[in-house]
Amino acid sequence: MRVAFILLIGLRTALCCTVISPSVKAAVKQADSVFRGTIAEIRDAEIVFQAERVWKGHIPPRFAMPRIVWSSTPCNPGFYEPDVRLGAELLVYARRGIPGWNFQGYVPGPGSRTALVQNALEDLRKLGRGRPPTTDVIRRPAAARINERGTVRSTMLTRINGGSFRAVAQKADVAL
Fold first, then answer.
1. What digits encode the pLDDT tens for the residues 6-21?
2. Domains in the chain, please, with CATH?
3. Phi, psi at residue 166, to the nearest 5°?
């Protein structure tokens, strides 16, 4: 009996971790998208948000994320289970592709500052006003060339939310 008890305590301790929440500035830098949204739908495999404000990334007004929730440890990517309910308003710091985890789409990273809006008022103050969700993104090629090493250098013209087009340089390696 003693051996089982010690083994159980050792296993629980091994599964625990310590997460130090990054500053708002560092969290924005680490994230691929940062937005404020209300949970509009909860499906078997995804959570659908009605996005209200965006600070980073191109987030449409309705945005689906994988339904990955945790109940006890912030050491895993995903949402804290008690926060996932219809009508809940969250500030989300999400990453696309977290090393060591196999999932598709954007997910809050381990220890991210993702939280209910009522618990993230200081973050919102530091983030500022933000902008509305992206309603349209139009991309069209402007120019492309391949150099002698097989690197494609191209320029895409991008227009977001009906604004003016701006040039975005892209680079990719191709086999010749």
1. 333 334 434 556 767 8
2. 17-127 (2.40.50.120), 137-173 (no CATH)
3. -135, 150
